[in-house]
Amino acid sequence: MSATGSIVRQIRWQAHQNSNIEVPENTMAAMRYAWDLGGIPELDIRQTGDGVIVGIHDSTLRRTTDAPAEERDRPIAEMTFGQLQRWDAGLPFGEAFRGERIPSLDDVLAVLAAHPDRELYLDYKEVDLAKMAALIGQRGVGRQIIFAHRDHENCKKVKRLAPEVRTMMWVPGSVPEATIRAYENARETGFDSLDIIQIHLVDDDNRESGWRYRVGRDFLQTVYRQLTEAGMELEVLIARFDQDTLFDLLDLGIRRFAVDEPKVFLQTLDRYPQS
Question: Which PROSITE patterns does this entry report, sorted A to Z (predicted)?
Fold first, then answer.
């Protein structure tokens, strides 16, 4: 076992989907890829016109499929699941992924149910939450699901509908004052119905110190301490990072991450010195 073995076992990481550059996002290939690397895939969820919950980030097919011009800008909410299945969601990424289709949530949950050791993030875009909760209940995978959204009220609703599902409120990090305000608002409720808080770490282009992000180190350290005391977890989304940055975050005690480049993340993590 490598020197970092015990640290690696403590880490939980999300394969963030909407800008993943290693596999085509929101496909079964992306799910398998993250699971095979030991991570947790994210599925962005929307609902079709005929009521099927599917995995896709955008409201149209334009960016992630080979749909023709007359179809690519139609709202997902106005199309049937059968119509979505006509178009390839892997080919625009590369020939190796030809044949990948937009998956239904139920298809992904069926795989999850067959592997109780696996987990899945569901990032809410636009779905009937009661229908989502019912599907999760039917497959018996509530303990394997982490529901993610920036709206605290939606997290509360999911916790009422499916108490076994963990809920994660994500907080944008572009404007530190707004980040702090959103976090404090949740804290004032006693973190009602929340299990995890995710903070997006955005690069500070005008930084003069050795700290990379707009959200300050001291704030992150305080949040980590308060969430730990509350029996919760802090997750950070690091779209950009280098070795020093990741090591700084690990030194703060953070053990939950969301990343766009899983292999780069794991290679960097393996160099973290075990104290």
Answer: GP_PDE (PS51704)
- Given this model, what pLDDT does residue 10 score? 87
Strand pairing class (120-126; 145-149): parallel
Per-residue confidence (pLDDT) for residue 3, from 0 to 100: 41
Q: Name residue, tokens 């393996």.
A: 270
Q: Which residue, 190, 262, 184, is CA-closest to 11?
A: 262
Estimate to the nearest angstrom the gap between the alpha carbon of 238 and the chain centroid: 11
Question: What number of other Cβ atoms are within 10 A of residue 70's Cβ?
Answer: 7
Identify the DSSP state of 233.
Answer: E
Asked if residues 32 and 275 have their Cβ atoms less than 8 Å apart, the reply is: no
8-58+104-270 in CATH: which number? 3.20.20.190
Rounded Cα gap, residues 270 and 187, in angstroms: 34
Identify the burial level of 151 via C-beta atoms within 10 angstroms of its C-beta, where 0-12 means exposed, 13-18 middle and 19 or more buried: exposed
Question: Per the structure block, which two tokens stand in for 27?
Answer: 């496909």
Coil/strand/helix, residue 15: strand
Instruction: Check residue 13 and give its pLDDT.
Output: 97
Q: Collect the ranges in the chain with pLDDT lower than 50.
A: 1-3
CA distance 275 to 263: 23
Q: How many CB atoms lie within 10 A of CB 189?
A: 11
Please tell me whether residue 72 adopts helix, strand or coil conformation: helix
pTM over 0.70: yes
| Alpha carbon distance 26, 7 (integer Å) | 28
Domain boundaries, the chain: 8-58+104-270
